Amino acid sequence: MFEQEKLLEQLGDPYTSKVVERLHRFAYIPPVIIESLAREALNEHWGRDNYALMKYLAVHIAWSIENGRYTFSGNQFYVTAGHLQTRYGTPLYLVFGVNQGSSVIPWRLITAGSQISAPELPAPPEIPPSPNIPKGAEIVMMHDHILGDNAERVPFLNETPPVAQMCAVSGAIQWSLNRNLQLPYWYFGKMNFLVPLYLQNRENITLSPDLIAPIQVNPDYLLVRTVLEPVMPYPNARVAVRRHDQLPPWMLASWAEYVVTASTSQIEDPENGNSNNS
Hints:
Distance between the termini: 41 Å
Shape: elongated
Structural class: alpha+beta
Helix content: 25-40%
Strand order of the largest sheet: 1-5-4-3-2
Number of strands: 10
Number of domains: 2
Number of helices: 8
Order of helices and strands: HHEHHEEEEEHEEEEHHH
Largest sheet: 5 strands, mixed
């Protein structure tokens, strides 16, 4: 019942942006338990229906199973709630049991919290490392008009030819990489980086950048898929760090404001979700 191979099969394909949907196919998750977990954990902004928390758990539960960092007894198995802790530093745990009410969804979240009784409690999963960025790698744009709908954020580039826009973005990426400003970033089952783009002002890099670029590290080049508003990839960056205070202050501050109206689709897939709140 608790064989790692079987649990991974029940989880399904890890290479997806719809990890919350994947988790819901794996286990029934009562909202009341998630609300209780959010209250017990160190305070963070999780958005409507705690959807950012659901995404965080969806990724970390899968990592726990992939790492073999789960324990079991009877007809239950236990994982940590990622690296979440109480305000006193106590780890938080999730308890799953067989879902007797469904032949389709195999598991059910029974309880969550810091006071869990189990013969052996699990360790949190390892957060996969981001790949090394090869020195001198070429920066390749996936689209000719990389700024797209975000062009209004850098109006001085509005009338600039696409090639010049690409050169500006490429130069901003290289500038940030030279200063190690990149952030770990989980997307579509893999770890890569977010790179802040300071296109108008570089006097104070503690301030929010103009845009942020998710980059995919390949052996000989860095692929830039798109550029985003700085706040949009927060949930994917949050997954990739142990504590939220390891993210830049500008990202935390802007997320606290943005998440109030952010839709679930924007949280689920920041690279394809509409940037307008809905």
